[in-house]
Amino acid sequence: MKIVLTTIKEKENGIAIIKELLANKLAVCGNIIEGSSVYLWENGIVEESEYLMIIKTSNEKEKALKDQLEKKHPYEVPEIVTINVESVNSKYVDYLQQWIG
Q1: pTM above the 0.90 mark?
Q2: How far apart are CA 101 and CA 98, in angstroms?
Q3: CB 27 within 8 A of CB 61
Q4: N or C: which end of the chain has fewer CB within 10 A?
Q5: Predicted confidence (pLDDT) per residue in 62-72, tens digit
Q6: DSSP state string for 53-93
């Protein structure tokens, strides 16, 4: 199992992207959490509100999910990070396999 993380400015845009990933069976679940980001960009330090997207997928679907996410992402330089999950309860793995294979 993999967890893919990215941030997005508009919550509604994030929900639309997650729904598309779910409809295409590239993800089994997505969460959107409001937060603050502080980062370097162009002429200095930027601080703004963003939403963290947490997307769960299978090892086999990770590349296709990331490709689709990069195409749909509105940022010029999106951060798309994968976390390799080393341990997850078997019922969740069964759920993931049932829905996205």
Answers
A1: yes
A2: 6
A3: yes
A4: C
A5: 999 999 999 99
A6: EEEEE-TTTHHHHHHHHHHH--SSS---EEEE-----HHHH
